[in-house]
Structures are given as structure tokens and as C-alpha cells.
Amino acid sequence: MHDTFDTVITNVRIASMADNGQPYGTTSHTAVGIRSGKIAALFEELPADISATHTVDGNGQWLLPGLIDCHTHLIYAGDRANEFEMRLQGISYAEIAKQGGGIKSTVKATRQASEKALFDSAKQRAERLLEEGVTTLEIKSGYGLDLDTERRMLKVARQLEDALPVSVRTTFLGAHALPAEYSNDADGYISLVCDTMLPDIAANKLADAVDVFCESIGFTPAQTERVFQAAKAHGLPVKAHVEQLSDLKGAVLAANYDALSVDHIEYLAEEDVGHLKDTVAVLLPGAFYYLHETQKPPIEALRKQGIPMAVATDLNPGSSPLASLLTAMNMACVLFAITPEEALLGTTRHAAKALGLNDRGMIDEGLRADLTLWDIDHPAQLVYSINGQRPKARWVGGRHV
Ligand code: NIG
Ligand code: FE
Fold first, then answer.
1. Which is the closest atom of ligand 1 to the Cα of 241?
2. How close is the Cα of 319 to the center of ligand 1, in Å?
3. Which of 191, 228, 242, 310 is geometrically suited to a Cys-Cys bond with 250, CB 3.0 to 4.6 A?
4. Is the ipTM of this complex over 0.85?
5. Which residues are 4-imidazolone-5-propanoate-binding (predicted)?
């Protein structure tokens, strides 16, 4: 049969990241046929009787799925370099937050910023991630904490998808911090999130998921649960920042609400790991590093119980100003002792799961043609070096970018 493709990539080694029993999901295929934005065929040997609009010689390089950064806060105004200085003078992240700095100071700057200013600065940060092979990006709101600014942030996130070669998934994080106008009335603010903000954002289809910062400096488990219930009522899946600074049992609570992911989890108790079977544990080594955290996530227990682990940048102005997913992977290996293969799974197959996406994160027939080509001898090299690699070519939805 004579088969036609939009693009055929030949002469590649493939790390599919699929669960095929081989390290990195390595396959014996050497060529990929792309049609209508999808991986239409994988070939061990390229048949003679096919035709393609574009043919790309991979020169024996490695083809991997596009990378997925499943946790970022990359839309914001201002920066927090002053707090970096304060922390180096011995004041803690939690103490700065209590003094009205931290997330609240970014909220102040973000509320004052125009849509265009937010878009322009976020685009630059997103470009840093894309240069490293990111083809899907999650972006949270949470620096507005009023309907107007939260909406503006999520609109900018949607605009980034139109402006850049990347899929964007948006997450409404209204319950990120208590805005100044609600100080001493956290329950009142949660009512605003659940009864006013969430319905509006859901009706306007601005969010793909809902997140909560469940923490001593964020919201209590009871408040978190109210947001989860409201999200469910609007048909939106939940995710949560949990056990970052203390163990409030937020991960188990989130898992009970079928959370797509539980993120941070440094203080997650080993005995709670068994509850996380149907979710994804998102490791954020950037925040761990930047805040000088010493409590590590329970990696061995997660591994033993087969809980999928993802790795993300958490790119944000306060706890993780890290615009490099490859560096986050390296950090996860060095700081948390996960393997390079686990790190790569964490930014491909498992990151897709953390976003509820089952059409990407691996190289397989029928999946989106989100692909990256790397001039390396082995996939572990991507994780081993720091600022050592850039993809030689990238395809997003089958389009060479
Ligand atoms: O994921 N933990 C809460 N949210 C962010 C920090 C945001 C900030 O400090 O601005 C995080 O670490
Ligand atoms: Fe975060």
C-alpha cells in the first residue's frame, strides 16, 4: 500500500518513554511518519513506497516526546529579588509571607499590570522553556486573588498558546494566598473563590483545572475541601500544593477528590503514600533548592508503591525563579535521588498524566506529534548536564517549529 505523510523523520533512535519494558521506552524503530498532527506510523525500516511532503534526516540522533512542564506560575508582574536578599540575611520564606511580602507582594504588582505587560513578560519566560523542548505547559493563576486579575491572568495564558508553538493548560489558583482585603476572613475569601470566581471562570472556560495552596501560610484542609467541592460542581478536575512546608494531610484529601496531581509533597508522611495510587506526585526541586529546604519528598516509598512521579519547574517569582525544565530534572536527580529515567518520565508520560492528558507524553502511533530531536549518545545526557543541551529540532502537533 502506498502511504503518504506530511512529514517523515528518518534515521533516528527513539526513546518513546512508553512502558515497553525497555529503559526510556527505547524501541527498534528508526523512522516516524506524521500525518494531520499525529504520529501516524513508526517504522523499523522505511518502506520504499511511501511519500512525504517533508523528509527530515535525523542523522542517527535521538527522538523523544516533547517535554511537558506540568506546574508553573509564569504569569506575574515585578520580581522578588529584595526577598532573596532578605532570606540571605536569615529571614524565612514563611516569615516574609507573614510580614505581607511573598505571594502578596507579587499580587500587588500583578493587579496593577496591564494585560499586555503580563503577556509580554510571561512570553519571554515561556520562550526560555520552549527553547529546551517544552511542547506542553501548565500555567496557574493565583497572583490576582480578585476576579478581574485572575481572569486577566488566565486570558493571558490562553493568548500564549495562540502566540507560541506550545499547548497551554490553565489552572485556576484563586486559593493561593489571602488577599489583604480579606485578612482575618479566610473563610469569607474562600466563599468568594467558590461562589463568585470559580463559576465565572468555569462559565468562560478559562481554566482546565483548579488548584489550592493547602498550607499553614495558605489555606486549611477544610477550606481546601470547599474549593475542591466547588470545582467538582463545575466539572473541573483538581490539583493541589500540599505538604510543602508542613504535613496537613492535604495530599490524601486531594486524592479523595480524584486530584490529577499532588505537588511539592516534601512533608508527605510515608504511611500516606498508599493513598496516592490514582494521582501523580509532582516533584518541584526548584522550590526545595531555592528555599533551602532540607525535608525531602518520600521518594523511596513513592517508588515502591508505584506512584507516578512528575518533575516541573514551579517557575514563579518567589520560591522558584527557574525557567529551565532540564535543570529541574537535574535537580530532582541530585537533590531527591530519582534516576535520570524517572526524571524524563516525569517530564513526559507522567507529566501528561498530571495534566489529565492521554494524547501525549510518549512516542506511539495515534498520539500527538509533539517531538524533540537531540544530538546525544544516550537519553541520560539530557539530565546529566546543566545547561548543556538544546533540541536540534522540535515538532508541535506535527508542525516543525
Ligand atoms: O509553588 N507554594 C505556593 N506557591 C508557589 C510559590 C509562589 C510564590 O512564592 O510566589 C510555589 O512554591
Ligand atoms: Fe507552585
1. 2
2. 5
3. 242
4. yes
5. 80, 143, 176, 244, 319
